[in-house]
Amino acid sequence: MNVETLEDLFEYQLRHAYYVERTHVELLEELAADASTANLRETLTNHRAETAEQIDRLEGIFAWIGRRPRASRSRTADGLAESWQLRTDGTDGTIVPDDLETALLAERLEIRAYESLLRIAGRLAYAPDVIEPLEETLAEERDALERLEALDSGWLFQGDPAGTERR
Fold first, then answer.
1. Which Gene3D superfamilies match (predicted)?
2. Which domains does the chain have, with CATH numbers?
3. Whole-angstrom Cα distance, residue 44 to residue 124?
4. Predicted structure pTM score
């Protein structure tokens, strides 16, 4: 897609967010299945349901701008999914993020995408039909990040005062 106007940039970013959310629905399911605690499993499962709703909102925004939903690949989202797959496959010995760290990275990526979409939508003076779903989704992503960060407190290096041994 050629990006020549601010509208083009919005559509490009929207396609990116759509790809990220669709990728993360699958990733969240895998992360929840492999979660090492019940709290993490519940948090990831609940956020997966939210993410499915967020995809519906993005599809509504595509309709509002007169475009059909299309995804643009995200190397970052693909990298997170690949890192997760390598960790679960355990084939090459590469050190990759654990389930909680992967989820935290995914949330931060989504937050940045929605902040960018909101900035561009604001500059384009888009209607509340676009702004409100983006704001709702951004609030959900920030809430999910807070819930995950609460689980992260002391998670990685519990029982290792020097912080040198991974749990």
1. 1.20.1260.10
2. 6-150 (1.20.1260.10)
3. 34
4. 0.81
Q: Could you count the other beta carbons within 10 Å of the beta carbon of residue 113?
A: 25
Structure-token match 């654990």, residue found: 98
* Cα–Cα distance measured from residue 94 to residue 152, given in angstroms and rounded to the nearest whole number: 22
2, two tokens: 């050629």
**CB-based burial, 2-28: b 16+ in 10 Å, e otherwise:** eeeeeeebbbebbbbbbbbbbbbbebb
Residue 118 burial (10 A CB sphere; 0-12, 13-18, 19+):
middle
* Token pair 């779903």 in the structure block, residue: 133
**Between the CA of residue 7 and those of 67, 71, 106, 113, what are the distances in Å?**
12, 16, 26, 16
Task: For residue range 80-139, list pLDDT tens digits in order.
Answer: 777 766 665 554 443 334 777 888 888 999 999 999 999 999 999 999 999 999 999 999
Which pLDDT does position 160 carry in this prediction?
41
Dump pLDDT digits (tens) for 48-87.
Answer: 999 999 999 999 999 999 999 999 888 887 777 777 666 6
